[in-house]
Design a protein that fits this description.
The chain has 414 residues and is α/β, with parallel strands linked by helices. It contains 14 helices and 13 strands.
Length: 414
Amino acid sequence: MRYDVAAVRALFPALAGGTAHFDGPGGSQTPAPVAEAVARIMTSSIANRGTVTAAERLADDIVREARGAMGDLLGSDPGTVVFGRSMTANTMDLARTLARAHGWGPGDEVVVTSLDHDGNVRPWVIAAEAVGATVRWAELDPATGELPVEAVREVLSGRTRLVAVTAASNLVGTRPDLPAVVAAAHDVGALVHVDAVHLAAHDLLDREALGADLMACSPYKFLGPHLGVTCGRADLLEELHPDKLLPSSDAVPERFELGTLPYELLAGTTAAVEVLAGLAWEGEGAAGHPDPAGLSRRDRLAASFAALHEHEEGLRVRAEDGLRAMDGVTVHSRAAHRTPTLLFTLDGVEPAAVHRRLADRGVNAPASHFYAWEASHRLGLGAGGGVRVGMAPYTTADEVDRLLEGVAELAARR
């Protein structure tokens, strides 16, 4: 399958500076069509949503198109797509609302995992503790980097009200067996909230086919602007009534969206999904794919993610093999099924120092726990975490080699 990375890179103005960006898991670089979509709305005649003026109708179209784009990306009906300022903010609001609507209290249990980003842990812990419910932990296996399904099953019971689980770890890339986790949770009558922030940049999601009750992501991780998206079962959203202003709409999904939506960011989100859907057809890649004019956006996304997976997986193997061959380097990403994201440490050198020295060479590979607080501690890395290397649609083999050369030089100086 042909993937023309040179043609893809031409979409990203920031890459002209020559920096090798392995910092995509924290936020990708922005393609020109996304920036142009944002700027176009910022310089257009715009108003609040309505049907009378052209400006009002434009705002309404922007929202409708963004819900459709995210529905295609996440496999959820557009009417179930909720926008907010961030995934974490959305989840905080949702956890509080859900606990109240479903009457959580003493005797009820909520399951979180030590693999997750804290944005899918703390909101549920806070909501549970506020009403006297019990929090139970499904633990990451530090030896394998896996979150075994059995680790989830053993903390489930008839009292479990919700399971919060990641689709993929933003720290080490581990992809749990999500269908099995969802099935196990549903077997005991629990809801499932899936954090898809990390995985949405690397694979096509399908909330409805998975059976996830709720799913969240952040467009800035997959070429888009900074905001949060949550989607869920239509019937579940209908029964939830969040805190809101009296005059604001009580319709779903608007009832969950406080204040005026950032129309320019929604336009950028639609543009980001379109860029993702077109990756397979950039440059010489078009020769290996059918005419996109005859395909739905969902079908184009599937083809592009397939091509992207092959590209990123090859780079991951190249980087991982190189790192594992170096004395003093430990790669902490070990799970059998994972994203093209690696976490490593270098004996005798603080991760933050590795980050700085690589940055001096024009290689951006940040160091942290990356808010996967529990996972970093379970792996024995503490608050310092490790150095994270993430592949993205614009990453090249030459950039991987530059990274490996930089790490090898640091390893030799120890």
